[in-house]
Amino acid sequence: MNTATNRQWRVRRYPDAAEAISTDLFTWAESGISKPEEGEFLVRTLCLAAGPAQRGYLKAAPPDAFLQPVPVGEVMRGRGVGQIVQSRHPDYPEGSIFVGSLGWQDYSIQSPRGKEFVFSTRLVTDPVFPLSSELSILGQAGATAWFGLLEAGRLREGDNVLVSAAAGGVGSAAGQIARLRGAQQVVGIAGSDAKCAWLVNELGYSAAVNYKTESLHEQLAELFPQGIDVFFDNVGGDTLNTALGHLAVGARVAVCGFIATDYDPDARCGPINYRNIVSKRATMQGFVFFDHWDRYAEAQSQLRNWYRKGLLHNAEDVSEGLESMPDALASLFDGRNTGVKICRVSPDPAL
């Protein structure tokens, strides 16, 4: 092992409703490195992914809440990819690459877990470098986009597709997948001219709209004269409401997230344009990637094939060092990140 102690970020307190994520919410701690018992293994964290849901772990919630909080004083929860360095499990040998809920720390004791929402685990049998791709285009972000488009969105060849938060982790994957699956056009919504240019020039989006400087209503009317067939929404709020006003007959709305309103104490009720779901005979369906965990290999096989052929761009925004993890999470809520936000904790091993 390359450290004598296990560095950790522990939850110090929960933020107020409108409070921004900051280092003040966490405590930097060091502890000893535990040894695995029978059926367990010790994993050294290589990288962690910051996701909007992690903000939802920082508030009190009832036992049946969708997102269960991390108790104050405990290691902050977060999915990551790591390498097994000690093992007492015959099916998880030392040196193997492992993906699971590692937490914001250098080392964690793990055991195999099945379809258990954020705690689901998998052994990487065919690693692709960088290993952070197991958290981004080949991991949860890519699979979320895959199942959201194909299951909730029921994507068909020739569809006209709109993606909100298109420059984010899941959105950057969704646009590429829609294009490769035969969409007629894929339009992204982002918050800067630079992000819009990146979507078109790097990821192959047909067009992109800067919602901060352009009228989203006017742009959607121009770009979708026949209406939106599939709307992959990561935002909610006014963006969702505006898009609902431009649906095609038989449209499908796949609701992946609602970062615009989820942590806003003054969020308004809506959307007003939900009446279009009736007039356009549309459907609107929420989904959770972990509901499709048993079918993960289905998405992984196609995504890896495309990636190895150079057809998929692995969109990552990388921070270095475990120390940067609170700021990595904060960047998701102030528009700084592009692609999946990754925190590299230690170097990829030479396999």
CATH class call of the largest domain: Alpha Beta
Tell me the major beta sheet. 7 strands, mixed
Oligomer: single chain
Termini gap: 17 Å
State the shape: globular
Structural class determined from secondary elements = alpha/beta
Helical content stands at 10-25%
* H-E order: EEEHEEEEHEHEHEHEHEHEHEHE
What is the total number of structural domains? 2
Rg, Å, rounded: 20 Å
What's the number of extended β-strand segments?
15
* Individual helix count: 9
CATH level-two architecture of the largest domain: Alpha-Beta Complex
CATH topology of the largest domain: Quinone Oxidoreductase, Chain A, domain 1
User: What's the average pLDDT?
Assistant: 93
What does this structure look like?
The protein is α/β, with parallel strands linked by helices. It has two domains: 6-136 and 315-344, Alpha-Beta Complex (Quinone Oxidoreductase, Chain A, domain 1), CATH 3.90.180.10; 140-289, NAD(P)-binding Rossmann-like Domain (Rossmann fold). Helix content is 22%, strand content 25%. It is built from nine helices and 15 strands. The strands form three sheets. Strands 3, 4, 5, 6, 7, 14 and 15 form a seven-stranded mixed sheet that branches. It has a six-stranded parallel sheet with strand order 10-9-8-11-12-13, with helices on both faces. Strands 1-2 form a two-stranded antiparallel sheet. Helix 2 packs across helix 3 and helix 2 (140-152) packs across helix 8. The longest helix is centred in the middle third of the chain and has 13 residues, at 140-152. It is globular, with a radius of gyration of 20 Å. The two termini are 17 Å apart.
